[in-house]
Amino acid sequence: MASNIITSADAIFTLTISDLFNAPITLENWGSDRAWEQEAVEMAEAQMSIDGKLNRGWIPRAVNQTMNFSAASGSIPYMEAIITEQQLTRTILTLGGELTLKSTGRKYTFTNGCMMTGSVAPNGGTVLEARTFTFQWEKVFPAGI
């Protein structure tokens, strides 16, 4: 894309929870300071041999992601539904996700994921604070849109 626009405001993140809902959910009303973030993924392990040769290999790693939502977000009931279902059934739901960044013309597909941690209620301050949820994904695939 020739433009130098890098806004997050036009991003669309959809979450698929096929065990609970028939259609993907569009997440909305993100936290203002940091909406979502992914940790850097370690992709290689290296060893230096005694004679000075560097040996390396690819290693599989999960992708950790944090999402933050305003306390008033319409996405909160969906996050709470995941937490409730996992507590009641004592099992982990499998999730899928897709992040579309219109500003950069990129799309990211998140596969075979699960919710790892979740804020069970908002923290109270001068106003209700944003709520944080973490997810772990098996793979993330980038593509153009």
Description:
This protein has 145 residues and is mainly beta. It has one domain: Pnp Oxidase, Chain A (Roll), CATH 2.30.110. Strands 1, 2, 3, 6, 7, 8, 9 and 10 form an eight-stranded antiparallel β-sheet that branches. Strands 4-5 form a two-stranded antiparallel ribbon. The longest helix is centred in the middle third of the chain and has 14 residues. It starts with 10 loop residues before the first strand and ends with a strand. The mean pLDDT is 95.
Approximate helicity band: under 10%
| Sheet of most strands | 8 strands, antiparallel
First and last CA, distance: 10 Å
Pairing-aware structural class of the strands and helices? mainly beta
Second rung of CATH, namely the architecture: Roll
Task: State the shape.
Answer: globular
CATH topology: Pnp Oxidase, Chain A
Q: Total domains, how many?
A: 1
- Rg to the nearest angstrom? 18 Å
What is the overall pLDDT average? 95
Annotation field: number of helices? 1
CATH class descriptor: Mainly Beta
Layout of strands and helices, then pairs:
Elements: E1 11-16, E2 25-26, E3 36-38, E4 44-48, E5 54-58, E6 63-69, H1 76-89, E7 95-101, E8 106-118, E9 131-137, E10 139-144
Antiparallel strand pairs: 1-2, 1-7, 3-6, 4-5, 6-9, 7-8, 8-9, 8-10
